[in-house]
Design goal:
The protein is an all-beta fold. The chain has two domains: 26-122, Immunoglobulins (Immunoglobulin-like, Sandwich); 124-225, Immunoglobulin-like. The protein has one helix at residues 222-225, and strands at 26-27, 35-39, 42-43, 45-51, 59-63, 66-67, 85-90, 98-107, 114-123, 125-129, 138-144, 152-158, 161-169, 178-183, 194-201, 214-220. The strands form four sheets. Strands 3-2-9-8-5-6 form a six-stranded mixed β-sheet, with no helix packed on it. A four-stranded antiparallel β-sheet has the order 13-12-15-16. Strands 1-4-7 form a three-stranded antiparallel β-sheet, with no helix packed on it. The protein is elongated and about 70 Å long.
């Protein structure tokens, strides 16, 4: 996932004199009902479309009152000739749960010209209840952050190879939550002893590095299952 900080609209040298802003600053409603945070450096971008600022004004962008700074070599955010601002900022990272965040844009030269919008972000996560179980036991898989199109799939991976893919559930709600009770390993035969990874994503075919995925590590051994494989 490629993320970028808010970027200023390009200023054309041929533009005429700046016109006065015609309205109070405002941010258009955010495009997504819920954004996903997978890792501290991997969160979905929040697209920004705002208007009503002074022409060519430099803009400070805050997420939860934290000033967002452009990357090295990037120009600071700036309105265009019509007072519009477009671009994107990364959604805030959270390690678990769901969080309501505030996006705020403020003119550097006039702190009274400010606009804000509310958004939601969820941690991409999956848990197994109970955490330990026999391979044939029924457990509950619960997850959130699966906001793509289609159902959630579980890919059972051993030593880098997918041995089985199972459709788990269709996510629901704005933050893409799911919950399903099923066998921990829906295999005809017992899985091999060793460390397995169950990768959850919304791709029917297994790929080692999808855009967004959550993983559980399961150690299969004789102590858990009570008999020699």
């Amino acid at each position: 996932m490629v993320l970028r900080l808010l970027t200023a609209s390009a200023l054309a040298a041929t533009l005429g004199p700046a016109a006065a802003a015609s309205a109070q600053p405002a941010i258009a409603p955010l495009a997504q009902p819920c954004y996903v945070a997978a890792q501290p450096n991997q969160t979905q971008p929040v697209a920004i479309s705002a208007s009503g600022f002074a022409p060519y004004a430099y803009i400070d962008v805050f997420v939860d009152n934290v000033l967002q700074t452009p990357g090295p070599g990037s120009a600071p955010p700036q309105a265009d000739a019509a007072g519009n601002v477009t671009g994107s900022v990364p959604a805030p990272y959270i390690p678990f749960g769901v969080h309501r965040f505030t996006l705020r844009l403020t003119e550097q030269a006039n702190q009274n010209d400010t606009a804000s919008a509310i958004g939601w972000v969820t941690a991409l996560s999956v848990e197994q209840i109970p955490a330990q179980a026999r391979t044939r036991a029924r457990v509950r898989f619960k997850g959130r952050g699966f906001t793509g199109i289609g159902p959630v799939y579980a890919h059972y991976v051993y030593k880098g190879h997918s041995h089985k893919t199972v459709r788990v559930a269709f996510p629901h709600g704005g933050c893409g939550a799911f919950s399903r009770k099923m066998r921990q390993f829906p295999f005809r035969h017992s899985p091999k002893v060793g460390t397995w990874t169950i990768q959850f994503d919304q791709q029917r075919r297994y790929t080692p590095a999808p855009d967004l995925s959550a993983r559980l590590t399961v150690k299969v051994n004789r102590a858990i299952h009570g008999k020699k494989r």
